[in-house]
UniProtKB/TrEMBL annotation:
HAMAP family: Methylglyoxal_synth (MF_00549). Keywords: Lyase. Transmembrane segments: none annotated. Catalyzes the formation of methylglyoxal from dihydroxyacetone phosphate. This is Methylglyoxal synthase. The active site is at 61 (proton donor/acceptor). Residues 1-126 form the MGS-like domain. The keyword Glycoprotein does not apply. Substrate binds at residues 9, 13, 55-56, 88. It holds the Pfam family MGS. It catalyses: dihydroxyacetone phosphate = methylglyoxal + phosphate. It comes from Propionispira arboris.
Length: 126
């Protein structure tokens, strides 16, 4: 397990920052990538050296999807906003799909994200 992708829609960015704050000790042990705005906010606050790709609406979800498809991402945390329509909805759907195609663990809400991080810790201690 090496690379974790972090993505949050605008209304979920505060939640993402809280999530990262809570788990920064674990997350800092992995290579982190993110869509542009999400990653920039995380880097400003935590200096975790997150590599940023394009913003989601400009193709960032597709970039992460391509990395999932080529097995360069091992886990995806995507705090989606299910109550706001997104202009790049097809890209979002494609990212979720490609995670399923490649059997990549994917959390789309904060509680499942917490569970995945706990699982990471369990795996580390094996
Ligand atoms: O839109 C997004 C995911 O679909 C997130 O993109 P940003 O991190 O650039 O806001």
């Amino acid at each position: 397990m090496k690379t974790i992708a972090l993505i949050a829609h605008d209304k979920k960015k505060t939640e993402m920052l809280e999530f990262v704050d809570h788990h920064k000790d674990v997350l800092s042990q992995y290579d982190l990538i993110a869509t542009r705005t999400t990653g920039t906010l995380i880097n400003e606050k935590f200096h975790l050296n997150v590599k940023t790709l394009m913003s989601g609406p400009l193709g960032g979800d597709q970039q992460i999807g391509a990395l999932v498809a080529t097995e360069k991402v091992d886990l995806v945390i995507f705090l989606r906003d299910p109550l706001t329509s997104q202009p790049h909805e097809p890209d979002i759907t494609a990212l979720l799909r490609i995670c399923d195609v490649h059997n990549i663990p994917l959390a789309t809400n904060r509680r499942s994200a917490h569970i995945l991080v706990k699982w990471l810790v369990t795996e580390q201690n094996k």
